[in-house]
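For anyone still unconvinced, we reproduce a single protein record, the chain in one-letter code, the fold tokenised, and leave readers to judge:
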Amino acid sequence: MTLSDFWLSVLASSIASILVVISAKITLERWKKWVIGIGAAAFFALVVAVIVFAVFTVTKEVSSYLTRSSLQEKIATYIKGHYPEELKKGYGVDVLEIRQRVFLGFKYPDSEAYPSPHPLSNPVFDAEITKLLNNNGFSGTPAWGYPIKPATAEEMEDLLQQK
């Protein structure tokens, strides 16, 4: 969630809570004996704002997850059909994030990691994936990432011992 998305959801929550307070005030005018006061109405508006904010945020995250999962499945199917040998060795591509551009990361087998060369990191594969993305509604070229394998405790000890 970006900062602008956060403020958009805060604004939506605030507007929803104001509308609820106004509608509650108009409705409760008829039943004045039930009116608790503006403090209770403000508390009620705050609760509604939090609920609207939560629903808005969860809906956006679930939608983003479903989009990423769908695209991940399409890319995995493409790699399975066109690059089965690389897939058997453990190489692949992960959909890391979808924003203005799709952010893809090269997946390595467990025994390897960046900076070792990735067999799918070439202009031909990039063009094929760009075409696949464009045919599925994602314009432009993807941004590529190379996940780095974290160092083990032994490797860190060896690194700290060296000067």
Remarks:
- Residues 108 and 117 are 10 Å apart (CA to CA).
- The chain has five helices and three strands.
- The first strand starts at residue 92 and ends at 98.
- The beta strands are 92-98, 102-107, 143-145.
